[in-house]
Amino acid sequence: MDDALLDLARRAGISPDWQDAFGRPRTVPAESLRAILAAIGLPASTAADIAESTARLEAEADTETPPLLTADAGAPIRVPVSAPAGSVSYRLTLDGGGLVEGIAQSDGVMLTVPAIDQPGYHVLEAGETMLTLAVAPGRCFSVADASGAERARLWALAVQIYALRRRGDFGIGDFSALSQIAVKAADQGAAALVLSPVHAGFSADPHHFSPYSPSSRQFLNPLHADAHVVFGGPAVETAAAALDRAAEIASLERAAMVDWPVAGPIKLAILRHLYDQALPRMPELLADYQAFRHAGGPALEGHARFEAIHAVQFGADPSRWHWRTWGEGLDNPESAAVEAFARQHPDEVGFHAFLQWVADRSLAQAQNAARSAGMPIGLVSDLAVGTDGGGSQAWSRQADMLIGLSVGAPPDLLNGVGQNWGLSAFSPRALIRSGFSAFREMIVAAMAHAGGVRIDHVMGLKRLWLVPDGFPATAGAYLAYPFEDLIRIVALESHRHRALVIGEDLGTVPEGFRETLAARGILGMKVLWFERHDDGGYTGAQHYSDAAIAVTGTHDLPTVTGWWKGRDIDWRLPLGIVGEGQTEGSERAARGEDRKALWRTIAPEDTDRHATPEDAGRVLDAALAFIGSTPAPLAVIPMEDALALDEQPNLPGTTDEHPNWRRRLRPQAADLLDDEAVRRRLHLLDTARRQA
User: Fold this and answer.
1) In 48, 233, 246, 325, which residue has its Cα 20 to 30 A from 451's Cα atom?
2) Collapsing DSSP states into helix, strand and coil, what is residue 653?
3) Long-range contacts made by residues 242-249, C-beta under 8 angstroms, separation at least 24?
4) Per-residue pLDDT tens digits for 242-278
């Protein structure tokens, strides 16, 4: 491969080489490198392109002073400046008020500013240089900080919002049902509810409902909003009656599954009636909506415009689902065509801003309910690893996104052809150039109504496996991100919002990565099924990390009851989702051995560890007590385990073959934890936490 191409790739943060799951060295194809370089704004098709792109990178490094620098509180700060060597006067306007003036020393390249102890976004002026210093605390806000106890041992439930039931939810679980379950969970000792993403989807396409493939990570899914919170019961009942679909709504609310393509449009139609008919007659609410829209600024306006344009384009022709197919200037959010559309369709754009207002007020009420009920943390939001490339965030922030690349994963032991998740990610060069504005806005949105955030695939803060459009997943490459900057911003926003941070660190993790997260107070994850010794045994509870949460499972994994019964195998075998070289016999035999090994580890002290029970209920009780007894500051139990259910919310590798993101729970959210068996399980967990 051309040395100049390799040099350019490395300078740009692309790794031309990587190591597979078997430890074998692999090389990224030259054409993949060229495609990735082109997507990040560094053409490399010819020798002249490579030379020009290399020169551009060198010039950026030598001359550009970024608008924002990150730093650590209590440590001297080095700022790139264009100033002669010697003493330079500086002025620092502190976040929240206050002014610091002094003398800093320049070596002609870098200015060394004395340490700042106060975390925040401070404005530095020195000579002709003016920029923002994002000064981060040493660690994120912690579980101990939330609990007020130095040795915190709290527990939480993980909840799929769509799965909750509430009379008047029109067939989709909402934030008011979340409020109800929060109050009941707090009463039994829960400190938090951990959510799956509630990011904005595509209102015009209710078939596109995966929470991990959103349109935007900065805005909310209005299908989880509850208009009762804002408008009250009579107004909502009037809107529902005007739709004249009472029998269908009742059927949707009774159904075992969420029927997104039917329930979604019905709920949006009711909200549209409220926007058109009720809001104009309620001056106080109208003023609140207008203030919310004004505060949302260009970002909210851009999202609302996208949703309105997408509805027209996709509604007229399903082949125009992706904004890159719109043409006529509509694919550019800054174009005259988009401005004209907004002027011609003010009610359509306003409606989508209205949806965000109702969703925001509904979610805020859920967090208030959780905290008022006694939860020291409350809601823990989930931040997806990327957004759909055809969505609002990619359209409205094209300069910040890697258009033409998709996030995925290299081949591993479970997937020999790699993975392409079809998600778009931020451009690392654009993040730096823009002062990390898009990333900061996204983190702030995730923490706005939450006591914590779980960052999906947290390794993406350091590197992402990116696959060029039209290439197989095996032809991707790792692209580096400004890791230290990003975790400082995460720590700073965690401090400002008093929100703990959990990093989903499952999968291929760079060496030393978990240690760095732990030093910053970002909690990792320890999953019961994955904590094993080389000899096949399971890790004892006392050996779990106190720098990670402990969980019985996740939305992508079988429940304890389902795993013990082999329900996940029942699903995977007919679909061919098995390990390489595995058969039904080998899968079930391996599960049998795993069951014995698990029981030897989690069995209560007064139980025969070598007599594996058939009763899955005994195993579930033992698993809850086991996870509760770990030194993890927070133990998280999926609601499906609290209810002893067999089925998991999502089966990776499937779309329509398994009812992903559709199963609803029974009974109503307000009654969900009242069953005597459920209360007993949660009491078992709560007791184990108190004794850990």
Assistant:
1) 233
2) coil
3) 242/273, 242/277, 243/269, 243/270, 243/273, 249/170, 249/171
4) 999 999 999 999 999 999 999 999 999 999 999 999 9
Using DSSP's 3-state secondary structure scheme, residue 53 falls into helix
Closest CA to 166 of 156, 157, 176: 176
Cα 585 from Cα 566, distance rounded (Å): 12
Specify the 3-state DSSP secondary structure of 236.
helix
What is the DSSP code string of 594-637?
HHHHHHHHHS-TTS-TTS--S-HHHHHHHHHHHHHTSS-SEEEE
Question: 3-state class of 279 per DSSP?
Answer: helix
Residues 82-124: tens digit of each pLDDT? 778 899 999 999 998 999 999 999 988 889 999 999 999 999 9
CA distance 494 to 489: 8
Do residues 92 and 120 lie in contact, with contact meaning Cβ atoms separated by under 8 Å?
no
Report the predicted TM-score, pTM, of the whole model to 2 decimal places: 0.96
**Residues near 544 by Cβ (< 8 Å), separated by ≥ 6?**
526, 531, 550, 630, 631, 632
Residue 135 exposed, middle or buried by CB count within 10 Å (0-12, 13-18, 19+): buried
The whole-angstrom separation of Cα 648 and Cα 267 is 26
**Average pLDDT for residues 480-492, to the nearest whole number?**
98
In this structure, which long-range contacts are made by residues 336-344, counting pairs with CB atoms below 8 Å and at least 24 apart in sequence? 338/305, 338/309, 341/305, 341/308, 341/309, 342/301, 342/305, 342/308
Rounded CA separation 417/279 (Å): 52
Burial class, 529, CB count within 10 angstroms (exposed 0-12 / middle 13-18 / buried 19+):
middle
pLDDT tens digits, 431-454: 999 999 999 999 999 999 999 999
Cβ distance 452 to 377 under 8 Å? yes
Residues 6+ apart with CB under 8 A from 219: 199, 200, 300, 303, 356, 359, 392, 445
- What are the tokens at 242? 């005007």
Distance CA 587, CA 671 (A): 38
Residue owning tokens 């529902």: 240
Q: Tell me the three state secondary structure of residue 561.
A: helix
Over the stretch 18-72, which tens digit does the pLDDT of each residue have? 988 778 899 999 999 999 999 999 999 999 999 999 999 988 876 668 899 999 9
Predicted confidence (pLDDT) at residue 14 exceeds the cutoff of 80: yes
Question: b/e map of 159-189 (b: 16 or more CB within 10 Å)?
Answer: bbbbbbbbebbbbbbbbbbbbbbbbbbbebb
Tokens of 527: 């999953």
Of the chain, the percentage scoring pLDDT greater than 70 comes to 99
CB atoms within 10 A of CB 497: 19
Average per-residue pLDDT for the chain: 95
Name the amino acid, one letter, at 243. L
| Cα–Cα distance, 20 to 416 (Å, whole number) | 10
Query: What three-state secondary structure class fits 278?
Result: helix
**Burial level of 654, CB count in 10 A (0-12/13-18/19+)?**
middle
Return the higher-pLDDT residue of 34 and 416.
34
The residue type of 172 is: I
Query: Contact, 394 vs 323, CB < 8 A?
Result: yes
